[in-house]
Design brief:
Layout: H1 3-13, H2 24-48, H3 54-77, H4 82-98
Helix pairs in contact: 1-3, 2-3
Amino acid sequence: MTFEEYQKFTATTAVYPSFGASFVYPSLGLVGEAGEVAEKVKKLIRDKNGVVDEEFRQAIIKELGDVLWYVATLCREFEVSLETIAAENIKKLTARKEENKLHGSGDNR
């Protein structure tokens, strides 16, 4: 499956107020799902000493899928493809790596 195919699929399952005309709902959904990923990791540390087992792996796959769905839907709202997002991110990270600036903080390193 390609990013384009996935992004098209997400449009068939997007049911929320102002679909196609508002970035608010998918933005909030993305934050919520990212929080659920963090919760799973927190509990993995607390309950299993950070040891990843198959039960955790399956649970995190589901949560990361929800994160991806919201990213794809948010991209659609901003009229940008997941492919573009991935390509731009590669460009940014490659430049940071070449300039030995992968560490640190700030958007414009």
